[in-house]
Amino acid sequence: MTVSQGSQKVERLCRLAGVSRAGYYRFWQHSAPRAHDTAVRSVIQEVALAHGRRRGYRYITHELRREHGIIVNHKRVLRLMGEDNLLCLRRKPFVPQTTDSRHDWQIVPNLARDLQLSGLNQLWVADITYIRLQEEFVYLAIVLDAFSRAVIGWAMADHLRASLAIDALSMALAERRPARDSLIHHSDRGVQYACGDYTKLLGAHGIAASMSRVGNPYDNAKAESFMKTLKTEEVDGRLYRNHKEAERCIGTFIEEVYNKQRLHSALGYRPPAEFEAWQPALLVPGGRGAARAGGFAPPPPAHLLDRQADRLDQ
Known about the structure:
Blueprint: H1 10-17, H2 21-50, H3 57-68, H4 74-83, E1 123-132, E2 137-145, E3 151-157, H5 162-176, E4 183-187, H6 191-194, H7 196-204, E5 207-211, H8 221-235, H9 243-258, H10 272-281, H11 287-293, H12 302-313
Parallel strand pairs: 1-4, 4-5
Antiparallel strand pairs: 1-2, 2-3
Helix pairs in contact: 2-3, 2-4, 3-4
């Protein structure tokens, strides 16, 4: 239904005008989509450039719906972004080794495989990646809550010693203070996570250790996914002058962009901070209604929104 159509049905308007419905729709398909493309294109350009061409067409489709109230099919967004050369930049393939699993420390089994999460602080995942500077590398360690995808601890250093991972874990412990014997910590088999100092810190807080299988990055997919997002949306295309600048920029991305602004498809296209704020409201009687009243109601599934956009595009 168009604005000029008002509350009248197309069938009645066509009968009054003496034209067939098929003829009306043929005319509409040649004129209305072009006008709609023009209106949507300017918003897409604004959103894509605001994110530095680091976001894909599916993400921008959901941001159009969420932030601008524009319901449009993701295929149309892909076409318009391609025509305007706004498709997101790809990350570089070079990845130096950050995991050394050739050590004599104890390797623990994978406790996180097929684990069904129902709340926060049930499973934390940890990983380490490299950050390229102008003349050297630094390394970033993170701890992420697997339920909300929020980064709850991170640290950066110019070395790969165990203290790097311990600093990230210490930040997460200070931030969340999890109950004893209620949390699993999952990581790869790197020496930083298997060494005595790290496992001692886990044991002191009643946290069970878990490690990925040999050569299987999918066991730690949530941490790997965050690292890919970080590289794609913040690190690639930039060249940090020194350690201090990298720490400042990446810290801002984690705390202000990733945790508070970036929409996550696994969370119903909402930021981790908003998703976590919605969780406590569900734990009290009548909480789901309170959550909806407070603006934290879960959005419709993405495939239903796509169907709605398909109908509007026809």
